[in-house]
């Protein structure tokens, strides 16, 4: 079953602008992770936020978690061309199996 | 050094053939996975092995058979390939204990095209 759902499916912004992606999930979680996938490559882990955390930063990335709404957001500030990629949220289900959302395709325009 | 490596990267083959994709990880992880990513980028887990033992086997046709000769290797063999098998197959690994938030490390993918 699908656990995480990203929104929007696709996003195009100008270089230098901020990009925000959202993820909604269905069941209770211990943690939520965000991954990036560049075209033609494998997924790369970006950041993890635990269920008792509300916000976490890593460089230009800011992740928020609202467990009451079962949602998370990923903010990329001052976007660069190299940020063009697909972004996935991931959670673990009750069988300890990680499940990925469908991803948000981010395109940074020059 | 590549952490998770899989071969081949590209594979074009005819319907009905049998093919294998090999995967190796040098991270010392206990758990390895195979994922399938379709043309819409949807990533779905197929199998998970922990210390050579199968722990997750999703609803996958039995034409797909994983084999783990040791905990650093997880190969995927596919019999009687069909057009619908065309996809990108990702091998991955992690320490066990997803609820603890272990990171999954992915290989670069194997692009399978069945013609």
Account of the 3D structure:
By secondary structure, chain A is mostly beta strands. Chain A has one domain: Sandwich (Immunoglobulin-like). In chain A, 0% of the residues lie in helices and 58% in strands. Chain A contains no helices and eleven strands. Chain A has strands spanning 4-7, 10-14, 19-25, 31-37, 43-50, 55-58, 61-66, 71-76, 85-92, 98-100, 104-109. In chain A, a hairpin with a 5-residue loop joins β4 (31-37) and β5. The radius of gyration of chain A is 13 Å and the shape is globular. Chain B has a single domain, classed as Immunoglobulins (Immunoglobulin-like). In chain B, a hairpin with a 2-residue loop joins β5 (43-50) and β6 (53-57). The model of chain B has no long low-confidence stretch (mean pLDDT 91). The A-B interface holds A 30-31, 33, 35, 37, 40-45, 48, 50, 86, 88, 90, 92, 95-100, 102-103, 105 and B 4, 40-43, 45, 48, 56, 90, 92, 97-101, 103-109.
Q: What is the string of SSEs of chain B from the N terminus onward? A: EEEEEEEEEEE
Q: Give the CATH architecture of chain B.
A: Sandwich
Count of DSSP helices of chain B? 0
What name goes with the CATH superfamily of chain B?
Immunoglobulins
From the alpha-carbon coordinates, what is the Rg of chain A to the nearest angstrom? Answer: 13 Å
For the report, how would you describe the main beta sheet of chain A?
A: 6 strands, mixed
Q: State the CATH topology of chain B.
A: Immunoglobulin-like
How many discrete domains of chain B?
1
Oligomeric category: heterodimer
Radius of gyration of CA atoms of chain B, rounded to a whole number: 13 Å
Percent of sequence in beta strands of chain A: over 45%
Mean pLDDT of chain B: 91
* Portion in strands of chain B: over 45%
User: How many angstroms separate the termini of chain A?
Assistant: 38 Å
